[in-house]
Amino acid sequence: ASLSICREAGAQHEVVFALNRLGYLSEMMGDVEEATRLCEESLSVGQEIADFPEVACSLYTLGSIAYYQGDYARAKQLCRRSLMMQREIGDSRGMGISLNLLGIVALYLGGYRETEQLLQEGLATLKAVHNQNGTATIRVFLSDPQGGVTSGQFVVTVTPVNDPPTISNIT
Predict the structure, then answer these.
(1) Which whole-number Å values give the CA distances from 108 to 55, 98, 101, 105, in the listed order?
(2) Cα–Cα distances in Å, from 26 out to 14, 29, 74, 103, 128?
(3) Which of 60-69, 134-143, 155-164 has the lowest mean pLDDT?
(4) Is-above-0.85 flag for pTM?
(5) CB 135 within 8 A of CB 105
(6) Distance between CA 151 and CA 128 in Å, rounded?
(7) Model pLDDT for residues 150-165, shown as the tens digit of each residue
């Protein structure tokens, strides 16, 4: 229903977002054909409107689908494209997740050194995300049962804190 409302409202960014999430859920439920269809549509629309975070997400999910189908060469190609885009937009979490999947794919392709390198880089990237600070813009899309639709965005700023060390009971 939300996807239909987004389409009717002409809210293209929200359409791309919804398609991505529905594709991910379809993949998790084992409906690979539907997941692929949804993510390919999300990728196409996302590229048309230059929604790079969602394009990167579509590429990653399509790479994940290819991985689970045993098409490791395609999984590697899609995840590399996703990683490249995530690096361009500065999405550290997405980079870490893509690096981890690329590491697993490299293992299946017999690239043991590459596997180790990718997994170490992915782990280091995700560890850095844990202590992240800065500014992020959050997009919100709301709809009600009567068909009312609105969207907006807001900025969240997380300031760095130099937390003092803590000591547990030492015996």
Answers:
(1) 26, 16, 11, 5
(2) 18, 5, 19, 24, 30
(3) 134-143
(4) no
(5) no
(6) 31
(7) 777 767 777 777 666 6
